Amino acid sequence: MATGLNSSGVDARRHGSSLLLSHRARRVQRITGLLGSGFLLAVTSLSTFAVLFIFFFIARDALPFFQLQGFTQFFTSAHWYPSSATPEFGSLAIFVGSGLVTLGAALVAVPLGITAAVCLSDVLPFSTRQVVKPVIEILAAIPSVAYGFFALVVFAPLLQERGGQLLQVASWVIGAPMAILGVVVAGDLLTDRIPAGARSGARWILISVLGAVAFWGLWRLGVSLGGITISSGTNALNVSIILGIMALPTVVSVAEDAIQATGRELREGSYALGATRSETILRTILPAASSGIMAAVILGVMRAVGETMVVWMASGNAAQIPQPWYNMLQPVRTLTATIAGDMGEADQATGSSRFHVLFAMALCLLVFSFICNLVSEWGVRRTRRKVGR
Amino acid sequence: MRLETRKLLDRSFTASGVLAIVLMTSALVILLAPMFIRGSGAIFFTGTVEHRRLMMEKFERGNRPTIEAEIASARAAREPVYRMMAEFEKQLEAMPATERRKMTTQLKELKKALRSLLGPAPGEIRPMLMRDQFGQTRWDRAQVKLGRVMFREEWDYSHPERGSVKVMKPRADDFAGTALAPLFPYLSANLDKMLLPAKTVYWQFLTDESFDSHFFGGIWPELLGTFYLTVGAMLFAIPMGLIAAIYLTEYAPENTFVSFLRTCISTLAGVPSIVFGLFGLAFFINTLGVSQSKSVLVGSMTLALMILPTVIRASEEAILAVPRTFKEAALSLGAGRWHTVMTVILPAALPGILTGIVISMGRAAGETAPIIFTAAVSVGKPLALWQVFTHPTPALSWNIYNLATEHEAMDEIRHVQYGLVLVLVMLVLLLNLTAILLRARVAKRLRG
User: Fold this and answer.
1) Looking at the structure, do residues B189 and B244 belong to the same domain, yes or no?
2) Which of A29, B102, B249, B394 sits most deeply, having the most CB atoms within 10 A of its CB?
3) Residue B416, CB half-sphere, CA atoms under 13 Å: how many?
4) Which chain A residue lies closest to B421 (C-alpha atoms)?
5) Per the domain annotation, does B36 fall within a domain?
6) CATH code of residue B393
7) Which chain B positions have a beta carbon within 8 Å of A53's beta carbon?
8) Which residues in chain B touch residue A240, judged by CB atoms under 8 angstroms apart?
């Protein structure tokens, strides 16, 4: 016991003395510390400056194109004949193609994604959520070339052979549940003022009338969709649907994060005031998370714009503006697919406009995604600030 | 509003949410089902005697006497076909000139269709291309080819409003009354005796090289190429990503420069994958000259750049998830900052970091656009390890694209394409499963 005490005392004294470093040792320690963190900073900067390098090298190869051809033709003409004797590099049709496909993807991914995100964060019980989450993860993990293969080999022939029927079935699958919900709710809302005794009967009559009208409308829509024949399965519609599914996981996970970030207090406050769950979500949670949800939409759009393989394989690659512009059933060509597809032919002629125009397109993509990124970052930060975290 | 109405609205809101989830899940099922069902057909299928002959001649696989007996019995079953052909050729010489000319072209077509079904006729010179040396190796393809023998495609333009309509004309009608007339019923009745279909498990699909641009053989070069590219990308991305994450979480002061660094990282995450490919070409190949042209090394570096933000973010999150108390305890025991990071924080954050790494591995393995200009070729031998610095390689993702869109006979090798897709998807899903299991472990550890 005594020796134990003694030795610990000795230890304490020894440590006490070593804690007081000499001037020199302290300086050495500080310098090594500085050197170490300097090294870490250097490596970190190296990896982060990669993005500046990307901007620089893409711009460096894009500039010769603008010097040779100017801006006007590139952005305003739809004549894309890069390999003719007098080459024309009008890329308007390609920009329109990218835009159309992205719009279509957003129309698929945004409503579905935000509804699913709300459902995941606030509606589903924990156990179901554990099943649904892997679904989203798998959708996000499937490589883009596999999506492209599906679009080209499975979906395109299906669209071409029985496109009308497919559209008909799709309109029923989405329209019928919507119609039922809409009719029931409308019937209830419209009979609100009728005195309680006659209400139930009146509601049933109204619901059956509205229901008949809605299903007649759906049936007519289905028949007119069923009459459509699709001349080529590789078109903007095909790509939009597949891109929409690809963008879904991004939209769902970012939107869900934003909705979760609004916190318990807001929800509890709303419930305490007697609001139902849907009222809480629609009137309190979604407004509070709006900038985060906007960020989710932007990130989803970025995924769709930057996607290469699906559009390259299944968009038809025709550099033309669809007539009319919203005609999704015509083939289109996008920026990414043009870069991927034309580089093989342009590669031998390094230095020509043919080569540099692809870098000009890449620069446009890069600038677009940079702006989107800044806006979405701002959105995420704003949500956090708004809810005070 | 009445309470019932509000409750109803609430319920319909829930219902539309559930509808969205159901749509999403069914989209996943519709996507994966054909990949799994037809993809497994690359390994499990009904093979014909031609497949077994191929395996024996190329790889010495299988029991030689049995296969030779099978070949002999198949040849015996085919013998009447060639006999009828010979008889018909004799008849042909006796025909008047106009009819003979017509019949000769038709006979040529028939012979071609028959050769692609059964392989070269006995006594014929061995053809140059390997695809012509063997008949159909798969029973499903053989059925399709039998259709080509039995019917002739013709285009009907008589209804201008419907455009051209494909009509299948039976060849039996063309040869009615000649010595070849009995050929067609004989063929459709005895195809199984000529090809001897049997259930086959061709697991060597994964480890065989491909022959004659993927008409036969497996996908080993692609598998190996994807492996090299992924591992190479991780070799670059892990150290850089980890160091950046450590710096950003433990060392970085809160100033404008560091927030600029963070903006750079998130911008890098948003760069479209095809732009990485262009950058790899413009910077690594054209400017730095890392290799003369495409190589695995350049492809790995490009992929590494692409997954770097993912690795950094995941590692950052994992490090931040380590409880503060761990760090405080270490610091209070007198450990320095670096010492704390290495001995306390990193071990605690390791499973979380691994999760992020494994997920980005899946992304690197599946990505195509960055390797188009930097690493991928359509056909190639499996590379030896020292060749990765200078040689391009086939890769799963690129070859799916290539075989599905640029191959000369893409309809004939659908099974290979589906096989490639299935292998790639399985690879990525397995990596993700690993990540999910790792994360479950982390959750348990941080709770306990």
Assistant:
1) no
2) B394
3) 28
4) A146
5) no
6) 1.10.3720.10
7) 279, 283
8) none
Residues of the domain holding B378? 220-447
Last residue of a domain, one of B196, B212, B242: B196
Interface probe, candidates A149, A203, A259, A336, chain B, greatest B C-beta count within 10 A? A149
Cα A245 to the center of its chain, rounded Å: 9
- As for how many domains chain B has, the answer is 2
**pLDDT 10s digit of each residue in chain B, 448 long?**
678 888 888 888 888 889 999 999 999 999 999 999 999 999 999 999 999 998 998 888 888 899 999 999 998 998 988 888 888 888 888 888 888 888 888 888 888 888 888 888 887 888 888 888 888 999 999 999 998 888 888 887 777 766 677 888 888 888 887 888 888 888 888 888 888 899 999 988 999 888 888 888 889 999 999 999 999 999 999 999 999 999 988 888 888 888 888 888 888 988 999 999 999 998 998 888 888 888 999 999 999 999 999 999 999 999 998 888 888 899 899 888 888 888 888 888 888 899 889 999 999 999 999 999 899 888 888 888 888 888 899 999 999 999 999 888 888 889 999 999 999 999 999 999 998 888 887 777 766 5
Tokens of B130: 């390997």
Residues B307 and B387 in one domain: yes
Cβ of A60 under 8 Å from any chain B Cβ? yes
A274: which chain B residues are within 8 Å (Cβ-Cβ)? none
Inter-chain residue contact B283 with A373, CB threshold 8 Å: no
ipTM for the complex? 0.91
Give SS3 for B164: coil
Q: Residue A164 in contact with residue A226, Cβ under 8 Å?
A: yes
CB contact residues (below 8 A), chain B span 158-197, against chain A: none
Distance CA B39, CA B31 (A): 12
Domain check: are B271 and B179 in the same one?
no
Residue B302 maps to a domain: yes
- The answer on B239 and B171 residing in a single domain is no
Specify whether B372 is located in the same domain as B405. yes
Are residues B174 and B118 part of one domain?
Answer: yes
Tell me if A47 and B16 make a contact (CB, 8 A cut-off): no
Report the residue from A189, A366, A370 with minimal CB separation from B5: A189
* Contacts with B369 (C-beta within 8 Å, 6 or more apart), sequence order: A144, A308, A309, A336, A340, B272, B273, B274, B276, B277
d(CA B231, CA B361): 8
Whether residue A43 and residue B365 make contact (CB cut-off 8 A), yes or no, is no
Q: Is B425 on the interface with A (CB under 8 A)?
A: yes
Cα B130 from Cα B119, distance rounded (Å): 10
Closest partner residue to A116 (CB to CB) among B5, B20, B417 is B20
Contact A44 B244 (CB under 8 A): yes
Q: B287 at the A interface (CB within 8 A)?
A: yes
Q: Which amino acid is at A21?
A: L
CA–CA distance, A320 with A299 (Å, rounded to integer): 27
Is B100 among the domain residues?
yes
- Residues of chain A contacting residue B163, judged by C-beta atoms under 8 Å apart: none
Instruction: Go through chain B and tell me how many residues it has.
Output: 448
User: Is residue B262 included in any domain, yes or no?
Assistant: yes
pLDDT at A18: 52
